[in-house]
């Protein structure tokens, strides 16, 4: 299997345009890569089935397909999100003195892709790359709340609620009620679900396509999240999430009320 994957990667690599659009026949690819024609043809058929290459109906030659572009855009969006969000994360950290995380969705999970640690001695410091189901934690649940209803239903219907990796017992009914509250107030707040004695407040980040692509999250020891601080932290978290969304081209953003 690994040999076939390596050959497929070599074929995709040779089809990468150098300036203008590039098309090659099965024979040309076979000769260039010193690979049997039958093997090249079989791999190209599989790649075409999944949209990674496309065949010109007239010349019968192959070029890169739209799936390559799709995954490229996903990677670009992630890089853009980190680049755009970083200065706003720094400001949020300065306003709250708490750790700030940037998260994005990957299938059924939320993933931390950047963070700025609190300057305080007692703080939260979770690793970049940490993954948790979208229904656990403020940074993930806020993303879940703003996904299309159909997508949410599909994700939640797959969950085995008897074995979720949460420190607190969770069930679908609770998550559904949480989502209603989140969408009304514009932010999510959770305590002690992923890490004991901690609280997080997350707000959604939207793309130019008007879809939720991530979240910004302010987190710290629960004892610092007093009623007064929750009001202030949630205001700033929503404010900077909105500013990031605006920078990414999102225009139908919610308004943050002045405090």
**SS content category:** alpha+beta
Q: Mean pLDDT, as a whole number?
A: 88
Shape: elongated
Distance between the termini: 59 Å
Radius of gyration: 23 Å
Low-confidence stretches are 253-259
Helix share bin: 40-55%
What percentage of amino acids are in beta strands?
A: 15-25%
Oligomer: single chain
Largest sheet data: 6 strands, antiparallel
H/E element order? HHHEEHEEEHHHEEEH
Count of DSSP E strands? 8
Strand arrangement in the largest pleated sheet: 5-4-3-8-7-6
Give the helix tally: 8
Describe the model:
The chain is of the alpha+beta class and 259 residues long. 45% of the residues lie in helices and 19% in strands. The protein contains eight helices and eight strands. It has helices spanning 2-14, 26-33, 37-49, 66-96, 138-145, 149-157, 172-185, 227-247, and strands at residues 53-55, 62-64, 99-106, 109-116, 131-133, 188-191, 198-206, 212-221. The strands form two sheets. A six-stranded antiparallel beta sheet has the order 5-4-3-8-7-6. A two-stranded antiparallel ribbon has the order 1-2. The radius of gyration is 23 Å and the shape is elongated.
Strand and helix map with partners:
Blueprint: H1 2-14, H2 26-33, H3 37-49, E1 53-55, E2 62-64, H4 66-96, E3 99-106, E4 109-116, E5 131-133, H5 138-145, H6 149-157, H7 172-185, E6 188-191, E7 198-206, E8 212-221, H8 227-247
Antiparallel strand pairs: 1-2, 3-4, 3-8, 4-5, 6-7, 7-8
């Amino acid at each position: 299997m690994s040999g076939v994957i390596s050959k497929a990667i070599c074929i995709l690599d040779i089809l990468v345009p150098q300036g203008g659009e590039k098309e090659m026949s099965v024979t040309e690819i076979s000769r260039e890569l010193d690979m049997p024609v039958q093997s090249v043809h079989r791999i190209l058929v599989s790649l075409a089935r999944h949209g990674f290459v496309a065949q010109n109906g007239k010349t019968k030659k192959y070029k890169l397909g739209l799936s390559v572009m799709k995954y490229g855009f996903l990677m670009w969006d992630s890089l853009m999100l980190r680049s755009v969000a970083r200065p706003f994360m720094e400001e949020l950290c300065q306003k709250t003195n708490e750790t700030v995380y940037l998260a994005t969705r990957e299938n059924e999970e939320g993933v931390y892709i950047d963070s700025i640690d609190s300057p305080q001695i007692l703080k939260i410091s979770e690793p970049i790359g940490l993954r948790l189901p979208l229904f656990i934690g403020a940074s993930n649940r806020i993303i879940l709340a703003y996904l299309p209803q159909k997508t949410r239903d599909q994700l939640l219907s797959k969950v085995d609620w008897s074995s979720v990796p949460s420190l607190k017992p969770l069930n679908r009914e609770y998550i559904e009620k949480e989502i209603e509250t989140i969408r009304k107030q514009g932010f999510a707040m959770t305590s002690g679900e992923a890490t004991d004695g901690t609280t997080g407040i997350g707000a959604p980040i939207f793309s130019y396509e008007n879809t939720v692509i991530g979240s910004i999250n302010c987190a710290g020891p629960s004892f610092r999240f007093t009623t007064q601080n929750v009001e202030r932290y949630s205001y700033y978290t929503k404010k900077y999430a909105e500013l990031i969304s605006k920078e990414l081209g999102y225009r139908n953003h919610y308004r943050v009320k002045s405090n």
